[in-house]
Amino acid sequence: MLKRAEWDELLQLFTLMKKRRLGYMAGVLGHALSETIIMISLAFIMRDMINAIVEQDMVQLQRSSIAVIGMGIFTGLTFIIFGKLFFHSLFKTLADLRLQLFDHLSAGRVGDIEQYHPGELISRVNSDVDAVSEVFGYQFRQLVFTVLTGICAMIAMMVIDWKVGVVLVIVAVLTAVVNHYYAGKMRVVSDRIQATLGRMSATAMDAVYGSKEVRIYHMQSAQQDNYEKSNGKWLDNTKENSGIRAKLELANFSLKILNFSGMLVLGAILMAMGVTPLGEIIAMIQLLTALNMMFRELGGLVAYLQKSLAGAKRIFELFALPGELTDKQQPEEPDLSQPVIAVKGLSFAYPAGEAVIRDVSFAVQQGQTVAIVGPSGSGKSTLMKLLMGLYAPSEGSIAAYGRESRQLDVDSWRQHFSFIPQDSFLFSNTVKANLSYGRSGCAMADIELAAERSGCSGFIAQLPNGYESQITEGGGNVSGGQKQRLAIARALVKDAEVLIMDEPTASLDARTEAEIQAELDELLQQKTAIVIAHRLKTIRNVDQIFVLVDGKLVEHGDHDTLMRSQGAYFDLVMQSDQEEVVVA
Ligand SMILES: Nc1ncnc2c1ncn2[C@@H]1O[C@H](COP(=O)(O)OP(=O)(O)OP(=O)(O)O)[C@@H](O)[C@H]1O
Predict the structure, then answer these.
(1) Beta strands 395-400 and 403-404: pairing type?
(2) Ligand 1 centroid vs 376 CA: distance in angstroms?
(3) pLDDT in tens, 501-542
(4) What kind of architecture, by CATH, is found in domain 341-583?
(5) Average pLDDT, stretch 434-453?
(6) Residue whose CA is closest, atom 29 of ligand 1?
(7) 481 C-alpha vs ligand 1 centroid, how far in Å?
(8) Which positions ≥6 away from 107 have C-beta within 8 Å?
(9) Which of these CATH numbers, 3.30.200.20, 2.40.10.220, 3.50.50.60, 1.20.1560.10, describes 4-320?
(10) Ranges for all domains in the chain classified under CATH 3.40.50.300
């Protein structure tokens, strides 16, 4: 049976139903009770009917026939009422749960969500909701029904003829022991099957996602071998499982025959001796079905419920991820005499890690373009995420026009920024929707102007439906350059005070890079911008360069000043020039 901890988990799972709990339980109990009443009463009605036929008692026969019709009406009504209650509560719970999870994860902290692989998180959400659906949609209801009908059938048997009842219960217990034995064996093998399937799907995913690497590094045959081996193991385990299942079915069938034929022989003897009438024997056979079902199915049902509970309870881990803070006190009015962005004594460490940003301070004035440079791993991307409020500072502050980020809710804070990453994400939606993501409902003229300035109006005009053309998942139907141009246009449409760029031309070919860089240089003249630069030739003309080494700002100034001082920036430029010579 279920362990104490599993009962607690089941009870905790019921909290997900919220106010639908009452309707659901009424549906489950109503359905189980009405089926039990029908099964037990049918046994008694059959007993009376058969005894009436044997004794040619027409009045009793009539009464029993009316009872059968009454039973039919009762069945129809209860099935409709309790079925509706059950399914309504179940489906509404599942719909609510999906919505709550979506909302919760959408409002989750980026740092927490980054702990998961994206595919893993999505499959976690789907499989956890499926597990909840299994528990509430089938297993719990079936468990209540099986136990209730089984116990009531046992009591009814004892009422009809306790001696025969005892014999039948003994055979039913034997059925349970046999089922328990084989269910244990099957569970071990099916765990092995699941593990093999998991390995197979990982190999298949590697083959699809890493198709280029697989070919270039000649890994096809090694991967095929791997897959073949796992497939072979799956087949062996499946055969073993089928063998155990066949034995279980044989044992169950034999016990059923033994039970029924035993019951018939016993019944015939008792009838011949005039101890038990035929009606009682038939009623016992009818009740036997419910009794057998309880002892045969209980073990399997509990095992399935335990397995689903293990998945369903993980949903609470997702709900336990804290959300971003959105309830802030009334902020002060922005002070336009202050710098657009002022960072003071900023430090940050990832959970359970050392500080990767250490005591960083700098300011960006209206209309300036500043660049953050530094060796790989020095903390540039982390600093950018801190600026955009994706992580909260461990120490220090970030302010826009004198208003600290912690004074504002995250949404208001992020109003200050547009962002163009190295590899932009396009949503599965129209071009127009993708461009107006940061300012829904904005005028078409603004979208067209932004597209014009970012150099993407030409290719949009060539798309079959222009701005209404559909972008496929992740931007699969546009080139890398077009994708980045659309991202630049999206940032222009939002028209925030500060444009943050994480080297948007990094993943493009040299020609497209040069074209887009020229367009960006022009755009930057009219904006306040912070550029994260991994390659230094793109930032020679910016107003200020901040050099980050091991999370610390070690230098700042314009390109010429920093080159003259021959410090960390000078070393980086020399290194990057050498790399370009080698690449060229
Ligand atoms: N999600 C994370 N969890 C834990 N540590 C992280 C995480 N992201 C980055 N780091 C660590 O923080 C440090 C700074 O990384 P960051 O990505 O900010 O550097 P970067 O200067 O942008 O590097 P690159 O130029 O190579 O992109 C590195 O040591 C990195 O390993």
Answers:
(1) antiparallel
(2) 8
(3) 888 777 667 777 777 777 777 777 778 999 988 778 778 888
(4) 3-Layer(aba) Sandwich (3.40)
(5) 87
(6) 377
(7) 26
(8) 323, 324, 326
(9) 1.20.1560.10
(10) 341-583
